[in-house]
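Weekly structure sync, notes
Attendees: PL (lead), two postdocs, one rotation student
Agenda item 3: pending single-chain targets
PL asked that the sequence for the first pending target be pasted directly into the notes so everyone works from the same version. It is reproduced below exactly as submitted, 286 residues in total.
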Amino acid sequence: MHYNQYLALLAFEALSASAAPAFSLPAGFPSLPKGAGASSSGSGSSPFSGLKGLGGFAGFGAGNGANSAGSTPGTGSSTPSTGVSGGGFSLGGLSGLAAGGGSNTENGITENAGCTALTVIFARGTSESGNVGTVAGPPFFSALRDSVGADQVTVQGVDYPASVQGNANLGADGGPTMSQLAAQSVSQCPDSKIVLSGYSQGGLVVHNAAGQSDFPASNIAGAVLFGDPFNGQAVDGIDQTNTLEICADGDDVCSGSGSFAITQAHLSYGQNAQQAADFAKQVAGV
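Predicted structure, written out during the meeting:
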C-alpha cells in the first residue's frame, strides 16, 4: 500500500476538517503492528496534511437509523444508532442500505452460551454500532444459521473502538482481542470450528489477529472478509484456499484503485450473505 493510499484510507471515513483527528504513520509502516499505536498531531493546509480539509465528508451517514432486533433468543441485543457518534462517521444512518437485519451485538463466546459445531468471530467496520454492526455481519449470520441450524452456530463480535483513528493502527485496535477470543473459544469448545470474519476496518483486524503470538492458527478453519482494505494479502496462518475475500464491483476500499472512496458498493455486502455462509459451512465441514 502506498503512502497516499494509506492517507486515503484514513480519510475515507473522516467527518470534517474540524472533527477529523490528526495522525502519524505507525512505526514500521506498512507492517502490521502487534498492538495499538499512538498518533500525533498533524498540521498544514494540504487536504491530506494532518487529515485537514476533509469538509467534503461532513454529514456522510448523518441521520437517524435503528437496527432491527435479533431473531435468535439469547444471541445479542440491538440498540438505536444515530448517524454521527463520537466525532466520527457512523454507518448507523445508512442501516437501510444493509440487506437483511439481525442483532448488532453477539456475545456467544464471552457469555459461554454453549458449544456448537461452528463459531464465527466477527469484527465490524468503522463506527458501526454494537460489536458486529449492521452492514455485513448480521445478514451473514442469519444465512449461516438458516443453512446449518441456529443451534449449531455461535457468533462473537470483537469489542474494539472501530474508530476513525483505528484505521491508522491497521487493525491493531482489535486484532489482539480477536486472537484472545479465538483462544478462549478453543479452551471452552475445542471441537468447534472457528471462522474469522471482518468488514472494512474489521478486515484489518482479522489480518492483525493472525499475527498475534497467542493466535491459535491450527484451530482456525477459515476466514471470510468483506470489503477488506488488504484484499489480496494472505491472512497469516490460514491457507488461502480457506480464505474468502469478497470485494464488490465498484468498491474502491478493496479494489486496489487507491481512491478508497465510499460508494454504494461498499455498503452492499448483505447481498453476499449466502455466498459467505456457504463458504464458511464448507471450510468448517459442518
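Discussion points:
- The longest helix spans residues 175-188.
- DSSP finds five helices and nine strands in the chain.
Action: rotation student to compare against the earlier draft before next sync.
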